[in-house]
Specification:
Layout (H helix, E strand, L loop, with lengths): L2 E5 L9 H11 L10 E5 L4 E5 L8 H5 L5 E3 L6 E3 L9 H5 L6 E3 L4 E3 L9 H5 L5 E5 L5 H10 L8
Amino acid sequence: MQKLLHINADKCTGCLQCEMACSFENYGTFATAKSRIKVFNFHETGKKVPYTCTQCDEAWCLHACPVEAITVDKATGAKVVNEATCVGCKVCTIACPFGTINYVEETGKVQKCDLCGGDPACADACPTSAITFIDANWTGLGKMEAWANKLGNQPSAS
């Protein structure tokens, strides 16, 4: 069963534990600049929103790569960058409409979330469960029902 990262921005406190865990998992150092997940700070509202690759079905990055350096991990469904194949042309960064693929100047390659091979460090590290790793087939029905109930969703009178 495939899983995906689910982000609930309402629970994010901006602690950056997700960024720290990601950089440590992938580079062995606590450096938020090297993280594949970022926490965007909306200064006007004080809202913090984590964002990373959504592993979208369309996979514009994968289709745009001229050397086929991005492939699908069959076990996790993650679109993964093969650094040995990547030539650092950055075409994938242009193709991604979400801006979640980044060029790493030190390596001359790109990086993006690979779901840590099926055990995402960011989700494990998040103290508020703003980031969770859930079944990809989750439809959000419970969330829709809760919202409908807030709006006065009642059984109809027959």
